[in-house]
User: What shape does this take?
Amino acid sequence: MKIPFFSALSSIPEFHLPQFVRAINQRLPQWPHAASLCLALNAAASLRILPEEALTLCSGRRVLIAVDDGGTRALITCLNGIFQPVWRETAEPDVRFHGDLHAYLKLILRQEDPDTLFFNRQLTIEGDTELGLAIKNLLDALEWPPQIFRDFFNRFSFGR
Assistant: This one.
């Protein structure tokens, strides 16, 4: 099934955001990125797109996702089954994921499998590598787009 937005992006090219984007973003508060990511993760968990295992894996752990060429960072944790931003960096994150925007887009849109992105060093894991690899394997196992989105697009004839 073709989904308009996803099929229009047949291949994400390797690109790097302009240096001024990074320079500006590094001076801005980073909590909106973490809050947005938590909102998306909590929605995915409530829709059962994100398995319960993800909540267990991240429970009480600090996870940093950094978009290097964008100069943005999202530091999150999971407490009581809810993803939450970490408002103050009082300790080092348990695990850190680093990469440029194009690598994250390839991962999200399933244009590259996570193993290839990590093997080619387009994405890197630092810190608790066991936790990082568990999260990476969890991402790899997710079905995208999930059935709920396929049903939505089919219902409104977007897939025809």
